[in-house]
Write a structure and sequence with these properties.
Elements lengths: L1 H20 L5 H29 L1
Amino acid sequence: MKVFGWICVVFGGFSLMGAIFTENSAVGPLFWLGLGITLLYYAKQKNNNENNNKTK
């Protein structure tokens, strides 16, 4: 999930820059960027929960 999150962030970022420079719609790139950020957030939360459970 973490790797796919980074792929979505990079893809969305480059697509967003291309959409802005060519004055196209930015809805699709914003979706991929948001999806990547969400996946990275959930991966971090899962990692934190696993670490907290190991220390208890």
